[in-house]
Structures are given as structure tokens and as C-alpha cells.
Amino acid sequence: MIFIKLSDRQNTIIDIIDKNQPITGEAIAEKIGLTRATLRPDLAVLSMCGLIDAKPKVGYYISNKKNNKDIIEKLSAVKVSEIKSLPVNVTENTSVYDAIVTLFLENVGTLFVVEDEALKGVISRKDLLQAAMGGKDLTAIPVGVIMTRMPKIIYCSENDSIIEAAEKIIENEVDCLPVVINLPSGKIKAIGRISKTNITKVLLEISR
After folding, report:
1. Closest by alpha carbon to 95, among 141, 61, 34?
2. Out of 35, 59, 120, 140, which could bridge 24 as a Cys pair, Cβ 3.0 to 4.6 Å?
3. Cβ–Cβ < 8 Å for 17, 52
4. Which fold would CATH assign to domain 8-77?
5. CA dist list (Å): 150 to 51, 67, 97
6. Mean pLDDT by 10-residue block, N- to C-terminus, for the chain (208 residues)?
7. What is the largest CA-CA distance in the chain?
8. Residue 73: predicted pLDDT
9. Which has the closest alpha carbon to 177: 186, 187, 185, 168?
């Protein structure tokens, strides 16, 4: 059987919650000697796996949901390759206006900037919103001006588990990750995307 491998810190968090439940995120962080922001990805993953629950203004406690073991096994076995969506690409010279239109027509939250198959940048809804608030002519601004460039792009591979992808999304506070492969040139190519929506759909299917 396949089980999720928890980190030492995640096991410590579970132990603290078990002995002090209910306990707030701030109190957990204080006991470990870290900030609440640092623990956010760990708490989110443990909640997603059904190991802990939380109540607003009360705190975290050990979950008593049934079949958590089955849910964890299933989540651990799901790879990014199984749930990834098609990437939506533009070029660096695409105008911000056209990028916004593409975003809405394709019903996505993130666009990838590609040149000769290689991933050059990522554009989020937030990037486009900030550009639109500037009051400039959006048809005259290329997305290359506002995109996030390598090596700051956060990405994943097809063989990553959805839990690994979720950790990257939560830790880096992004909506979507490009799913990439290596090119002979040493650059990377986006062959898919995985978003919060992809992961949420899997959680709903497994929980039913």
C-alpha cells in the first residue's frame, strides 16, 4: 500500500495538536519556534489529507473523519500527469490587452510565455490586473514587461504527486504551476498546467 510520507516537522505538528487540541496556528508556531507563515504549507497539506481539522477562532484538532487512511493512500498515488490540463501559451510580444482577452476566452487564471517551445515566463491574473490599473494603453504593452521570468518560475514535473504540487502552490501563493519537461537545449518546456481547481476536483472525487 502507498502512504504519504510526512516530514519531521509535519509529524511534530500532529504531535503538538494531539497533545494540546484545540490549538491555534500561532500557538503551534510558537511551540516549534517558527512563524505562522512558515507553517502554513504544512498545516494546509495536513488539512487536505484529512489528518487535522480546524474551526475558526478555536484552532486545530486531530480529525476523527472516517476513512482518512484510504483518502491519504489515494492522494499519495495520484500523479500530476493524471490530472494536468493543457497549457495556454502566448508569446513575449503579445500585448497585455490580448493576454487579458485570451485569459477570459480560455477560462484560465495563468498564461505561459513561450519562445521556440521553451518556457520563458508566466503571467497571472494579478499581473494583468496590476498592468490594467496603470491607466496605460494595454494594446501597446507587451507581456514581456510584466511576466515572471526564469529562474523565478515555480514549476513541477509529471511524476510529482498532487500533494507535492499542492505544497508548491500553497508555499509560493500561486494559482497554477506549469508542468514541464527538459529540452535538449537545457531549457524547459511547459506540457501542461496544474491549478488549485485540478487538485480540488481530485479531492472531491476521492472524498465521495
Report:
1. 141
2. 59
3. yes
4. Arc Repressor Mutant, subunit A (1.10.10)
5. 35, 41, 23
6. 62 91 92 88 79 87 65 76 94 95 93 95 93 88 93 93 86 91 94 90 72
7. 59
8. 67
9. 168
Domain residue limits, the chain: 8-77, 81-207
- Identify whether the C-beta of residue 125 lies closer than 8 Å to the C-beta of residue 103: yes
Give the amino acid at 124: S
CATH class of 81-207: alpha beta
Cβ atoms 107, 195 nearer than 8 A: no
The amino acid sitting at 171 is E
